[in-house]
What we know:
Blueprint: E1 3-6, H1 22-37, E2 43-46, H2 52-61, E3 68-70, E4 75-78, E5 83-86, H3 92-110, E6 115-117, E7 125-129, H4 135-149, E8 153-157, E9 162-166, H5 171-182, E10 189-192, H6 199-202, E11 207-210, H7 216-219, E12 224-225, H8 230-240
Parallel strand pairs: 1-2, 1-10, 10-11, 11-12
Antiparallel strand pairs: 3-4, 4-5, 6-7, 7-9, 8-9
Amino acid sequence: MKLIVLDIDGVLSPGEAHPFDLALLTRLGNLNRHARQDEAIPAVTINTGRPSPYVEAVMQAIDGWQPALYESGAGLYFPQTYQFRAAPGLTSAHLAKLRLIIERLDQAIIQSGRAYWQPGKSVCHTLFAHPPFTLADLTPEVRAIVAEVSDDFIVTPASLALNVHPAGIDKGSGLRWLAQVTGIDPIQMGGVGDSAGDIDFLRLVGQSAAPINATAEVKAIVKYVSSQPEAAGLQEILDYWSLP
Length: 244
């Protein structure tokens, strides 16, 4: 294994308003430092729906130096040169349709008080439900609005949110892009995810795993499921892979 690719929410942390496990961040940072010196130790990077500033901060916390994917494959962050690149294939026509979709969703869903946007997104936009509304309440209407505007965009559920993103740009396409940029074949990668949006990239890596809190569909396709959730589960997965 030459590279470990991690989702954040549901894997590296429980999500919003929860503290990071500092012992886990220290371990991941040590892996990255060792990987610089020893090719037998895999580096650690990120493949997440989170926006670029969040990914930049997490990569700093784990001393990450390999490129990291943000907004579910819509962008790639290069820590060593401090560059942010948009996914190949994104056009001005895509972005024009996206602006119209966001405007329609804002009018129908946000202004009605049923949901709110995750800040900082530019391509893969994320909706959170306002209680007492749930994602299940919102999903059919969100999908209908998106489909009415353009079939170039789709709605993908995550563990806590709904992602609206261009068709063909997802965590799987992002992983292929990462493989091309790094020269590391996906079969030489390990991946950890927990929700439906992670399946595309988990199917590609050579070693796939999930924490116990993962959805049933994720557990069904990975090679290993830990007995613990989130950070504790990731620690267990690293142990299973015999990593320091």
